[in-house]
Amino acid sequence: MSDADENPLLTGPGEVGLVRYGDFDFEKPFTFEDGQTIPRFRLRYETYGTLNESRDNAILICHALSGDHHCAGIHSVRDRKPGWWNNMIGPGKPIDTNRFFVICSNCLGGCQGSTGPESINPETGKPYNLDFPFVTIGDMVRAQKLLIDHLDIPELYAVAGGSMGGMQVLQWAIEYPSFVKRIVPLATTSRQGAQSIAFNEVGRQAIIQDPEWKGGNYEAEAGPRVGLTIARMMAHITYLSDKGMERKFGRRRRDSGEINFSFDVDFEVERYLRYQGQSFINRFDANTYLYFTRALDYFDLPATYGSLEDAFRDVRARVLVVGFTSDWLFPPEQNREIVQALLRQRKHATYAEVPMDFGHDSFLVDAPNLYRLIVAFLWEK
Amino acid sequence: MEKQPDKRTVDMRLISDWIDPDSSVLDLGCGPGTLLEYLIQTKSVFGVGVDWDMDKVCSCIQRGVPAFQGDLSELMKTFPDKFFDCVICSRTLQELSSPAAVLLEALRLADTVAVGFVNYGYWKNRLHHLFSGSRTVGEVTPYEWHQGRPTHEISIADFESFCSRHEITVTRRVYLRGDWETPCGYFQNLLCGYALFELTQ
Predict the structure, then answer these.
(1) Hey, which of A159, A219, A297, B12 has its CA 20 to 30 A from A212?
(2) A336 has a chain B CB within 8 A of its CB
(3) Is 0.85 exceeded by the ipTM?
């Protein structure tokens, strides 16, 4: 029996199975909000399902800080881990690829195939590193719009995403009001608060203070691995919740035995965080981490547009915002504020709150209540 | 107890007569959103509902009715004065922890407030009390004292006296008999099963 025969992610019910990425090369200069211009950029993206004849069934998925364009399916028959939102996307799943054409691209500034700090600057023949312009949520969305135009899609049935993805989702509805029919921002905020900026700063300092960072000019295979690991370990705690961690790990020991009286891994939660840190450095670029956390920090709709109500003045999309009770990074209150401001602008907006213990990451895990809400919203009259 | 017609049909028929086309409406305790769906479809209102219950909010989404899952007092605070033309409070009042505060807040938010409630002064309740000495449990009030949410039973007499104490003007009254269909023209606090009031301040 081959691996392919055994892999339920390949042909199992609800699975999109094997997927391939595409590359969109925008061959014209692109000017960022910070005023800097790059001569061209690439966005790596994936699509699932089929664009219908009237080209009105496209759903754009926006990924979070550590995510990428690979949100469903597998790349190889041997893959054991599918895309990051595989539980949500697929035939018969809440974002149903039998009905919708789903698109997800790696954000501009990313490190999974899209142009970012580790890409070669055509003007110097060397990686951009810190010469890469500061990327904002607005820049990410403008680049995605160029991809959607390239795919000749005249409107988006919906744009969905959580956390940093949720910020992009809001930006889409604000900047392209007649283009976007529905938005689903999850576990997000209209304005990065002090606590979130503070956590990002600790992560950035862990990277910047690592001698291997070298002012951002590290070699592709080297880099601030220690700093990035620590940044990820700390950030990962902010994605969970006290209750969720207690339930998942408690004080369980790694060897289920005695205390070791050492600084090695004693507790299961330590093993888990180290694993998260280690697996992150193998797939993520430290400079992208710096740039993306800065994009989050600079996200402030009220300041950018005068007020949150002003930001939403031209929104035409129907909105479903979902907050999660145990999310303390972007707590329910910050999600509610989005809907309250939209309602004050007399927009078609709904807020729902899902009781879950998984903290900020609740939007990524198996959540029947979230599925129910999304299905209702995507199929509403 | 008589077979009650669908509660929302009663409200739909009566409250929708009070709602102007293209006006804006907040439904406190909107349930599955049937009333708002009807108002959106027939009167093109801007409507939003608020309810605690995720099942109800999910049902609102399916009907294309904007809804806010959460505490209605908290949501009401986020709107400026007279933001709505009408706030609807249909069979919600009895379950609120501070009904007076909610009613006064509703009057801040809207020119008119439509309030509908089951009249606890209804004669069958009185007889039931008198002869059994226990609380009425039936189709309209289905829960025993130890089940469901806390409920303040409201009678028409109590509600009228509340309004006059708070200088709330009642601009319209609709009284229905126990069948929730036939208008009730006299001895309302005794004979009326369901009452609807339109308030202003």
Answers:
(1) A297
(2) yes
(3) yes
Pairing of strands A101-105, A41-48: antiparallel
In the structure encoding, which two tokens stand for residue B104, read together?
Answer: 């006064």
| DSSP state, residue A225 | H
Pick A343's closest partner by Cβ from B48, B54, B70: B48
User: Is the Cβ pair A339, B83 closer than 8 Å?
Assistant: no
B50 belongs to a structural domain? yes
Phi, psi (degrees; rounded to nearest 5) at B183: -60, 150
CA distance B9 to A172: 39
Task: Note the pLDDT tens digit of each residue in A94-121.
Answer: 999 999 999 999 999 999 999 999 999 9
- The answer to whether residue A380 neighbours chain B at the CB level (below 8 Å) is yes
Which of A279, A298, A317 corresponds to the end of one domain? A298
Chain B residues lying within 8 Å of A346, measured CB to CB:
24, 46
Considering the candidates A63, A69, A70, A360, report the single residue annotated as catalytic.
A360
Q: Is residue A327 annotated as a catalytic residue, yes or no?
A: yes
**A131: containing domain:** 3-192+300-379
Does A140 share its domain with A31? yes
Domain count within chain B: 1
Assess whether A314 carries a catalytic annotation: no
Residues B9, B193, B163: CA angle, nearest 5 degrees: 95
Q: What is the pTM of this model?
A: 0.95
CA nearest to B79 within chain A: A344
Q: Indicate whether B70 belongs to any domain.
A: yes
Q: What is the CATH number of the domain that holds A67?
A: 3.40.50.1820
Cβ proximity of A188 and A351 under 8 Å: no
- The CATH number of whichever domain residue B42 belongs to comes to 3.40.50.150
| Kind of pairing between the strands at A349-354 and A58-62 | unpaired
Q: Which of A298, A330, A360 is the last residue of a domain?
A: A298
pLDDT, tens digit, 9 for 90 and up, residues B128-183: 889 998 888 877 777 888 888 778 889 999 999 999 999 999 999 999 999 888 99
Contact with chain B for residue A372, Cβ under 8 A? yes
Whether the CB of A186 is below 8 Å from some CB of chain B: the reply is no
A112 and A237 co-located in one domain: no
Count of domains forming chain A: 2
A166 with A40, same domain: the answer is: yes
Q: Are A276 and A249 in contact (CB under 8 A)?
A: no
pLDDT in tens, A247-290: 999 999 877 677 888 898 999 999 999 999 999 999 999 999 99
Mutation to test the B interface, candidates A308, A351, A379, most B Cβ within 10 Å: A351
Residue B138 at interface with chain A, using a CB cutoff of 8 Å: no
A15/A108 same-domain check? yes
If you measure CA to CA, which chain B residue comes closest to A378?
B62
Kindly determine whether residue A380 and residue B57, on different chains, have CB atoms separated by under 8 Å.
no
Kindly report the CATH number assigned to the domain that includes residue A275: 1.10.1740.110
